[in-house]
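queue> pop job 88
queue> type: inverse folding (structure -> sequence)
queue> payload:
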């Protein structure tokens, strides 16, 4: 690769970085989970199966 091609490649990379940093169409992080299953809740709270469902009914 000669110097001109190398320079063009660097310019291209700089242009891409500039566009990505100033773009209004940036990727947003995925939203956090809003729901959890009964099993997940029970494991998080350390509850047995019967207690998990009892807690939901009250």
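queue> result:
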């Amino acid at each position: 690769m000669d110097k001109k091609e190398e320079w063009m490649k660097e310019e291209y990379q700089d242009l891409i970085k500039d566009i990505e940093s100033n773009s209004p169409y940036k990727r947003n992080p995925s939203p956090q989970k809003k729901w959890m299953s009964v099993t997940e809740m029970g494991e998080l709270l350390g509850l047995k199966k019967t207690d998990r469902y009892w807690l939901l009914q009250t």
